[in-house]
Amino acid sequence: MALNSLKVKLMSKHGINLSQTIAEFPGTIDLAKNRLAALANVMTQRACATQSTQLNYQTLAVSVPNPHVAHVELNRPEKGNAMNLTFWREMVECFKSLGADGDIRAIVVSGRGKIFTGGLDLVSLTQEMPDFFDTSKDIGRRAKSLRQTIEQFQQSFTQIEQCPQPVIAAVHSACVGGGVDLVTACDVRFCSADAYFQVKEVDLGLAADVGTLQRLPKIVGNGSFVKDICYTARKVYSQEALDMGIVSRVLATKDSCVEAALNTAKLIAEKSPVAVQATKESINYSRDHPVTDSLNHVRLINQCMLQSEDVVKSAEAMLNKETAVYSKL
Q1: Distance of alpha carbon 304 from alpha carbon 301, whole angstroms
Q2: Are 40 and 7 in contact, with CB atoms under 8 Å apart?
């Protein structure tokens, strides 16, 4: 009853007069009703998806610009989208929420303001974690506390990798320090022509510890290049990033970069979510395991997934030259 009521409200909101539409609709009344119901279902799904992602974050802005597509924006433009403690916590909360949302099938990450991110907010962290700088405390206890904090920071971006849906990064201008950690946890990376990537940590007297040193070598497959940029902290501009495989596309501007990412996410969202998410799981598993183990892993996945209704829907759509419509997960 609640779903039917929502459909009626949505049709009314969009100016659909049920009686008039049925009278004017070519064909049978049943056909008209079916098509109107299909339209209402699409609008209902979008409304539900929007509601599920309108959560209140201080450092992130989440929207649903297209059906089944979420857009997560780093939202501290006045601070260069620098990463404070609130940001690290909210990244976990956000991607856990999106990962559990059956209406969301692809996610885009971008940054508001002039740059993608300047990385770690050192000023804020100094104020928020005073115990780390209190030399009067026992070093063993300080070390244990710091280890727990590093683990929490690592989980913030591992949550992106563990998110079932594909995540696309749209990078513009500066992507520094923690920004590289973030985008290397994403599945696909686009950037604007003015973008640059910088593994900045050695300039701060520390080793990158939130994922860059572990993920970047597997992304680019060139150990010499990775050590070059990590030892020197030099900037890698968009063309070199494309040549080395850090990104797969370079767009002229920030707006065109975000648009391309959203269009790609929209295309992914039109595919079977069962197939796409199984593909992501298999690719990530294969990255970290031998070929034999990975083949066994995908056999275990597909012995279930090949029985999905999505296989039948896809085949029927191809035969009929139609676009398949898949159920939410």
Answers
A1: 6
A2: yes
What letter would DSSP give residue 105?
-
Give 31-57 pLDDT, tens digit per residue. 444 544 544 444 544 444 444 455 689
Tokens of 199: 């593994």
* Contact between residue 170 and residue 108 where contact means Cβ atoms under 8 Å apart: yes
The token duo for 162 is 């563990």
Q: In the chain, what is the straight-line distance between the N-terminal and C-terminal CA atoms, in Å?
A: 22
Residue type at position 181: D
DSSP-based three-state secondary structure for 210 = coil
Count the alpha carbons within 13 Å of 10 in the hemisphere toward its beta carbon: 19
- The 10s digit of each residue's pLDDT in 103-156 is 999 999 999 999 999 999 988 887 777 666 677 888 898 888 889 989 999 999
Phi, psi (rounded to 5 degrees) for 58? -85, -30
Is the separation of the CB atoms in 210 and 178 below 8 Å?
yes
Are the C-beta atoms of residues 106 and 113 closer than 8 Å to each other? no
Please report, for residues 38, 308, 319, the alpha-carbon distance to residue 312 in angstroms, rounded to integers and kept in the order given: 20, 8, 11
Which residue stretches of the chain are H helix? 2-13, 18-24, 29-53, 85-99, 122-128, 139-162, 178-184, 212-220, 223-232, 238-244, 254-269, 273-288, 291-305, 309-320
What pLDDT is attached to residue 134? 75
Question: What contacts 31, CB < 8 A, 6 or more positions away?
Answer: 25
Tell me what percent of the residues of the chain surpass a pLDDT of 70.
82
For CA atoms 103, 105, 111, 113, the dihedral sign is negative
251 strand-pairing partners: 192
- Amino acid, res. 290: P
Separation between Cα atoms, residue 239 and residue 193, nearest integer Å: 8
CB-facing half-sphere around the CA of 269: CA atoms within 13 A: 27
